[in-house]
């Protein structure tokens, strides 16, 4: 059984790396990389800014403290944005509220510093801001964020090109965070799709099995019911034919049980000739004249033709008073006709068997059509020469 994958907003335990799935490892790697890059950039910009300062000690402590405070606030915001992506359309003010005051206070403090440190100090303010809110997907919020980056850089450095630099750096940070979260979300969606595909495959196999059970048991049980009723009537009249009829019912029951067991074990394969002979025997045992001819049906369509025969014969036994049944192949159509339906009224569509047959043939390019012709009920299964998804 597959281990559960990381869900959006739920962080896997990174310290158990060996126990994580591949998807969980991608999740951990992406998130932790963004945190590391935030603090790494803060350290790099702090060092490069202080390298230009004349009073290293006097400016190092306040700049370092400010960079750490802004970084901590940005980390808190990043955690919330990561947890809600891709639904993070607005700024999470409940956790982001300390960040704007810290940035404003830092900007005012930088105005009192020498010019050579203001440019780098501005990056220490709007860099974490852009990094923390880069995952917010609202367009207005992102445009406002880039405007803040431009204003902070341009005002503090007193230069229009510094404002452009702020937009470029802020935009790059937003792009990096957004692209990383987007790729992570795609990985998680693919994993969810893979899990859903596995569940659908299981459901499809269960549906296929239920249809096979319906085909196999429905036909036998219908015949058993008819023969049992006949045996009961014969027994009431004291007819000695009642005993052989009941023996025949017992044989049908054992045959149905054998096929059901083979079906459950997955050993039952469709043999068209056997399906035709089985259908003929069931119809004859019910007192119905059967003329079944499947000569010329391509081998690739044998299994599908078996489905049609099973469902068609089951419907004849259960939903009609037929006295004759014919089955013919006409190149691309398998036509099953029977009498014993009301002379007027709508064409009967009993049960869900025909709907299930249509659903099984559709992926292969086949189709099912029912109608009335000269007082007969006609089931026409179209099986094209080049079936889709079927190997010869």
Major β-sheet annotation? 5 strands, mixed
Helical region count? 11
Strand content: 5-15%
| Multimerization status | single chain
**Fraction of residues in H or I helices:** 55-70%
What pattern of helices and strands is seen along the backbone?
HHHHHHHHHEHEEHEE
Number of strands: 5
Detail the poorly predicted runs: 1-9
Mean pLDDT: 81
What is the general shape?
A: rod-shaped
First and last CA, distance: 34 Å
**Taking Cα atoms only, what radius of gyration do you get, to the nearest Å?**
38 Å
| Broad structural category | alpha+beta
- Spatial arrangement of strands, main beta sheet: 1-2-3-5-4
Total domain units: 2
Keywords:
11 helices, alpha+beta, 392 residues, rod-shaped, Heat Shock Protein 90, 5 strands, 5-stranded mixed beta sheet, 2 domains
Topology:
Elements: H1 22-50, H2 56-84, H3 93-96, H4 99-110, H5 115-133, H6 139-157, H7 160-236, H8 242-265, H9 272-285, E1 289-292, H10 302-319, E2 324-329, E3 333-338, H11 353-361, E4 367-373, E5 376-382
Parallel strand pairs: 1-2
Antiparallel strand pairs: 2-3, 3-5, 4-5
Helix pairs in contact: 1-2, 1-5, 1-7, 2-4, 2-5, 4-5, 5-6, 5-7, 6-7, 7-8, 7-10, 9-10, 10-11
Task: Give a nutshell description of this structure.
The protein has helices at residues 22-50, 56-84, 93-96, 99-110, 115-133, 139-157, 160-236, 242-265, 272-285, 302-319, 353-361, and strands spanning 289-292, 324-329, 333-338, 367-373, 376-382.
């Amino acid at each position: 059984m597959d281990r559960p994958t990381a869900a959006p907003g739920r962080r896997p335990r990174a310290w158990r790396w060996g126990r994580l799935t591949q998807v969980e490892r991608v999740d951990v790697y992406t998130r932790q990389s963004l945190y590391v890059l935030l603090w790494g950039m803060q350290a790099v910009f702090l060092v490069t800014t202080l390298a230009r300062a004349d009073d290293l000690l006097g400016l190092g402590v306040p700049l370092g403290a400010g960079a750490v405070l802004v970084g901590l606030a940005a980390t808190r915001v990043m955690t919330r944005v990561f947890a809600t992506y891709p639904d993070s359309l607005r700024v999470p003010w409940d956790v982001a509220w300390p960040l704007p005051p810290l940035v404003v206070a830092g900007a005012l403090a930088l105005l009192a510093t020498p010019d050579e440190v203001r440019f780098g100090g501005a990056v220490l303010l709007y860099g974490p801001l852009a990094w923390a809110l880069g995952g917010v997907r609202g367009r207005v919020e992102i445009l406002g964020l880039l405007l803040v980056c431009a204003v902070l850089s341009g005002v503090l450095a007193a230069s229009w090109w510094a404002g452009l630099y702020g937009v470029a750096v802020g935009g790059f940070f937003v792009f990096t965070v957004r692209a990383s979260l987007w790729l992570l979300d795609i990985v998680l969606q693919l994993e969810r799709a893979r899990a859903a595909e596995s569940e659908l495959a299981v459901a499809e196999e269960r549906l296929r099995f239920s249809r096979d059970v319906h085909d196999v048991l429905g036909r036998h049980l219908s015949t058993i019911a008819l023969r049992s009723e006949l045996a009961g009537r014969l027994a009431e009249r004291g007819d000695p034919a009642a005993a052989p009829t009941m023996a025949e019912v017992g044989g049908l029951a054992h045959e149905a049980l054998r096929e059901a067991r083979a079906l459950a074990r997955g050993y039952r394969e469709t043999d068209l000739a056997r399906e035709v002979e089985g259908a003929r025997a069931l119809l004859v045992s019910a007192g119905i004249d059967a003329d079944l001819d499947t000569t010329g049906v391509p081998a690739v369509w044998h299994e599908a033709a078996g489905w049609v025969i099973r469902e068609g014969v089951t419907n004849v036994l259960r939903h009609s008073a037929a006295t004759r049944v014919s089955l013919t192949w006409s190149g691309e159509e398998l036509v099953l006709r029977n009498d014993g339906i009301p002379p007027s009224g709508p064409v009967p569509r009993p049960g869900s068997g025909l709907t299930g047959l249509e659903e099984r043939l559709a992926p292969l390019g086949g189709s099912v059509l029912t109608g009335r012709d000269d007082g007969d009920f006609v089931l026409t299964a179209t099986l094209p020469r080049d079936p889709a998804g079927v190997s010869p």
